[in-house]
Amino acid sequence: MRATLDSVIGQSVTPAKWVIVDDGSTDATPQILAEYAARHEWIEIVTRQDRGKRAVGPGVIEAFYAGYETINPDNFDYVCKLDLDLRLPLRYFEILMERMEANPRIGTCSGKSYVEEAGRLVSERKGDETSLGMTKFYRVPCFKEIGGFVREVMWDGIDCHRCRMNGWIACSWDEPELRFVHLRPMGSSQQNIYVGRMRHGYGQYFMGTGFVYMAVSAVNRMIEKPYVLGGLAMLWGWVRSALQGLPRYDDLTFRHFLRRYQWRALLVGKKRAIEEIHQAKGITL
Q: pLDDT grade, residue 125 (50/70/90)?
């Protein structure tokens, strides 16, 4: 947490306001946050009651909105959902804003996440067609137009697809000045990484992802740690959700849009499929 706090305070362009939500911490978090808030007037702390369990997906977004609801978004040009387990490069926010000012159709963007392994940085392999969930940087009008975040697992995929549905660009860049260190690997869980991978499979099912696309994605993930089993856990999370008949994202227009994109991505690749959507909307990167 201190690494994140220090890297934001040290930014070439600091936030106009930073609302940090303490989601019921039982360790030294409140004292550390109070220390930083006392030194920087643009940092505000919001404390929520401990819910008694970790709630990945809905809990993350509930915490975000506990902070978001304390501000008037119309007073700001940009809003960022930022996790407290990151180490950001010096010009991170400055560069993102420069890119968005240069292209007014970019609705959300981010850099790329890396983890440290044996003294070297390893990419977490996130696609260029999404802004990463731990640093969702948004143009406020775009965020409002898509209706914000869905309070469910896969919120960080649904939002980017909704951006494209509405004629906005969602993207991320893998460049040295935009690479940040993720201090806790994605897809992990308070139980184990396999539970995290199964949760991802459920999230894909909820979002509306088709079985064929899910199977291809799972195979693609088998080359990452934990090898093979991680991809199988993702696929099982989708299959188990389907067998149980769990509810899916209640927006048929969105799910049809998603399925069309996924079939095109399987046929021509993600990059070309995204370009076709942009061309249809009359926008360019």
A: confident
Q: List pLDDT tens digits, range 140-153.
A: 999 999 999 999 99
Q: What is the average pLDDT value for the chain, to the nearest integer?
A: 93
Q: Name the residue with tokens 């806790």.
A: 184
- Collapsing DSSP to helix, strand or coil, 82 comes out as strand
- Closest by CA to 206, choosing from 153, 129, 256, is 153
DSSP 3-state assignment of 98? helix
In one-letter notation, the amino acid at residue 70 is T
d(CA 158, CA 203) in angstroms, rounded, equals: 10
Residue 187 has pLDDT above 60, yes or no: no
Residue 210 above 70 pLDDT?
yes
Of the candidates 88, 172, 76, the one whose C-alpha atom is nearest the C-alpha of residue 133 is 172
Angstrom CA distances, 23 to 46, 93, 136, 138, stand at: 8, 25, 19, 22
Instruction: Please name every residue paired with 19 in a beta bridge, in sequence order, or none if there are none.
Output: 44
Size of the chain, expressed as the number of residues it contains:
285
- The CATH number for 2-182, chosen from 2.120.10.30, 3.40.50.970, 3.30.70.20, 3.90.550.10, is 3.90.550.10
What CA–CA distance (Å, rounded) separates 43 from 76? 15
Domain boundaries, the chain: 2-182, 193-281
Residue of 123, 121, 122, 100 lying closest to 112 (CA atoms): 123
SS3 content of the chain, % helix, strand, coil (to 5): 45, 15, 35
pLDDT in tens, 211-227: 999 999 999 989 888 88
- Residue 16 is predicted with a pLDDT of 98
